[in-house]
């Protein structure tokens, strides 16, 4: 291991001490966090150009509110991984529980496995690429950013969506209110190819995906808005 | 909030470690509920000796010797009573329902923790770590155990409000969440002749499942029926001496993680409760999907 990697062992070091160290104003280089054992709030609120590797499964809200950092979780993540992420990248090597990337404003969240319900709920500008499938109510009230699903999506995809663009390769069990399938124009194929490449899925054919987005019928109140 | 844990062992070599593993899981979930807790253990040789009917009585208000004498007088057989915290574990060489009837006759207002041929249910008010210590949980053995750490929302903090609800023979149910139509379902069950011990919402679900099973339905059918009858939030772990089942409501906002290896199946509200199980590194770990019934049986294991 290169000498500039700082290693913390959560089996012996309190979580608060580790998170405080990650909030040091001059933080740089690489950090490795061992034995997370499902702890909550691992590496939240990091705002520095560092690479953080978490060696194992984490609990709730891992890498939440992250800015600039490049965070890799070598395992599964609990509820709300990378919630409200602002910039940088968060990669989950396993599966993510519900509300992955909730309200995230920027950056890239990559989940190699499946994401459970409410993936990208109220996302506000982040990009999320899910290697497997997403659960119900994903991209609920999603406002901006892009959500890519290489597998299938559950019920109510994109319910009450604003302007997030959703790309799904597999089947969608049902679409939510005001979410519709849309044409894949050249700019969408190009955008999707870029997102897939950024997440390491270079062999996917962007043309095999369907784009979904807002029908924009809920933007204004109408007595006939019935869903 | 509340926390749920459950461990279904497939490998007999692990049976002696059931209590220690379950205690670790339960105490890890103390953060999710610290007002009361309860456990059920299937197959401990002293808590529920093989071949004898067993019942758990909570806060009886009499000494173990008095209870043993009173029940022996009712049944005409020797009755063993041991105290674990405020729970009395009672067993005798009769069917558990016969033993239960004798207990209800001798102590009409007693709170029954559970009954069956292999089941011990212990529950009480207090912090889960203190309760597990008082019960001597770490020393328990068996093939299956479940536990619950409670943060009360729907009824009082009492032993009667603590889970598990073990209201049918060798059955047990623990719940994270809240049912919103439990009063309606309770009225319907009362009309059908079912009796209740508490005002607790989870008891209604347990009585509902027991009522379905008593009518001859399989556990997965009973749980499907539960999904269509109950409104509310739930992650449920429903066990029987030979089965272990998990179900979540359609919204699935109450957490659940399942892990499975060749040696065991485990379920908990959060992964950290599973993090110390032997072989967890190689376990298949997933989040159960809404309204899908996950069900394991011992017969399947030994086959």
TrEMBL record, chain A:
Signal peptide: none
Sections of the chain in a coiled coil: none
Domain of life: Bacteria
InterPro entries the UniProt entry points to: Glu_synth_asu_C_sf, Glu_synth_lsu_3
CDD domains cross-referenced by the UniProt entry: GXGXG (cd00504)
PANTHER family (alphabetical): TUNGSTEN FORMYLMETHANOFURAN DEHYDROGENASE, SUBUNIT C (FWDC), TUNGSTEN-CONTAINING FORMYLMETHANOFURAN DEHYDROGENASE 2 SUBUNIT C
Name this protein carries in UniProt: Protein glxC
Organism (species): Nocardioides vastitatis
TrEMBL record, chain B:
Enzyme Commission (EC) number: 2.6.1.16
Limits of the Glutamine amidotransferase type-2 domain: 2-299
Lineage of producing organism: Bacteria, Bacillati, Actinomycetota, Actinomycetes, Propionibacteriales
Full protein name: glutamine--fructose-6-phosphate transaminase (isomerizing)
SUPFAM superfamilies from the UniProt entry: N-terminal nucleophile aminohydrolases (Ntn hydrolases) (SSF56235)
Enzyme class: transferase
InterPro entries noted in UniProt: GATase_2_dom, Ntn_hydrolases_N
UniProt keywords, alphabetically: Glutamine amidotransferase, Transferase
Species, as recorded: Nocardioides vastitatis
């Amino acid at each position: 291991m290169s000498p500039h990697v700082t290693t913390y062992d959560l089996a012996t070091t309190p979580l608060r001490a580790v998170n405080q160290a990650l909030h040091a104003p001059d933080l740089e280089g690489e950090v490795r966090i061992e034995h997370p054992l499902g702890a909550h709030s691992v590496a939240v609120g990091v705002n520095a150009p560092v690479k953080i590797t978490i060696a194992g499964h984490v609990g709730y809200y891992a890498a939440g509110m992250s800015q600039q950092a490049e965070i890799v979780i070598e395992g599964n993540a609990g509820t709300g991984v990378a919630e409200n992420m602002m910039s940088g990248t968060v990669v989950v090597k396993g599966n993510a529980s519900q509300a992955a990337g909730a309200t995230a404003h920027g950056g890239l969240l990559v989940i190699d496995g499946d994401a459970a319900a409410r993936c990208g709920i109220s996302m506000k500008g982040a990009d999320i690429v899910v290697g497997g499938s997403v659960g119900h109510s994903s991209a609920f009230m999603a406002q901006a950013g892009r959500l890519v699903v290489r597998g299938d999506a559950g019920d109510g995809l994109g319910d009450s969506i604003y302007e997030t663009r959703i790309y799904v390769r597999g089947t969608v069990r049902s679409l939510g209110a005001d979410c519709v399938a849309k044409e894949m124009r050249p700019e969408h194929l190009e955008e999707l190819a870029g997102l897939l490449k950024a997440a390491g899925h270079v062999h996917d054919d962007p043309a095999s995906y369907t784009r979904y987005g807002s029908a924009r019928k809920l933007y204004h109140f109408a007595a006939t808005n019935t869903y | 909030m509340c926390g749920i844990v459950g461990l279904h062992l497939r490998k007999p070599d692990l049976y002696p470690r059931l209590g220690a593993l379950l205690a670790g899981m339960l105490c890890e979930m103390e953060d999710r509920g610290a007002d009361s807790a309860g456990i059920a253990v299937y197959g401990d040789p002293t808590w529920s000796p093989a071949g004898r009917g067993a019942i758990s009585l909570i806060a009886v208000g009499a000494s173990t010797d008095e209870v043993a004498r009173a029940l022996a007088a009712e049944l005409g057989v020797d009755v063993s009573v041991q105290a674990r915290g405020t729970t009395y574990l009672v067993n005798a060489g009769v069917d558990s329902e016969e033993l239960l009837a004798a207990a209800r006759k001798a102590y009409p207002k007693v709170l029954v923790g559970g009954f069956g041929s292999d089941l011990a249910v212990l529950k009480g008010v207090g912090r889960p770590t203190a309760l597990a210590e008082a019960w001597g949980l770490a020393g328990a053995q068996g093939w299956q155990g479940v536990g619950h750490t409670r943060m009360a929302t729907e009824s009082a903090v009492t032993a009667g409000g603590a889970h598990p609800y073990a209201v049918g023979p060798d059955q047990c149910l623990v719940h994270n969440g809240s049912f919103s139509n439990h009063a309606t379902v309770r009225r319907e069950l009362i009309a059908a002749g079912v009796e209740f011990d508490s005002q607790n919402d989870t008891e209604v679900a347990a009585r509902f499942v027991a009522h379905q099973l008593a009518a001859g339905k399989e556990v997965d059918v009973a749980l499907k029926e539960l999904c269509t009858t109950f409104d509310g939030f739930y992650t449920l772990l429903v066990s029987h001496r030979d089965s272990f089942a998990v179900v979540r409501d359609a919204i699935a906002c109450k957490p659940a993680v399942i892990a499975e290896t060749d040696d065991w199946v485990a379920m908990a509200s959060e992964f950290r409760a599973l993090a110390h199980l032997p072989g967890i590194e190689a376990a298949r770990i997933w989040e159960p999907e809404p309204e899908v019934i996950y069900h394991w049986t011992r017969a399947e294991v030994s086959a």
